Amino acid sequence: MSRLLLDPKSFIISAAKLKTHDRVVATLSLKNIVVGAAVKDPGYRWGPGAKPGAKSDKAACHGSGFRAINYNLFALAQRLHPHLAVIDGYDGMEGNGPINGTAVNHRVAVVSSDWLAADRLALELMGIDFANVGYLNFCADAGLGQADLKKIEVVGETPARHVKPYKLAENIDAQLIWKTPVHR
Question: N or C: which end of the chain has fewer CB within 10 A?
Fold first, then answer.
């Protein structure tokens, strides 16, 4: 991870968009920072005689499957998370995000110094069941922020008036494997 982002003196602002995701249901302020923090080494060489090229540890953050990415995001959130979450929902993205989705004309924004509260409220605005987003549930269970909507103070209009259900990725059923206990 980026040394600068891990520096306790750093103040991290996550400028994210409302987006559905093909691996973790939705990508908001936390995932935006954690996956964006992966080290990129422009001098990396892939093998004997290979020319230098860019290497990114982004794939390591994603892990090897739906369970792993949810756990990795949670594990990294304990050391690396935004101090200010700014989630732009002017135009969101639904469907097979974060790349192959479809634009959603939503016209909302969420800003909070509690990144988990911001991500939780963003899910509500997107009509996404919080119980389906593994990494955010793990973070809530660990007390990394506020996830109880009744305890989140909203300044501005009532969020319920601005809920716009987002279409989820085609593979949503596979993504929810994180909810199933691992049998050994």
Answer: C
Q: Token pair of 56, please?
A: 């990114």
pTM for this model (two decimals): 0.88
What DSSP string runs through 152-171?
Answer: ----SS-GGGG--PPPPPTT
Angle at 115 between CA 114 and CA 116, to 5 degrees: 95
Token pair for 143: 């007390």
SS3 content of the chain, % helix, strand, coil (to 5): 35, 25, 40
- Within the chain, residue ranges assigned H as helices are 3-6, 29-36, 58-62, 66-77, 115-125, 134-141, 172-175
Whole-angstrom CA distances from 89 to 16, 70, 73, 119, 148 are 9, 23, 22, 12, 21
Nearest CA to 120 among 80, 89, 147, 93?
147
Q: Where are the domains of the chain?
A: 3-35+65-179
Mean pLDDT of the chain: 89
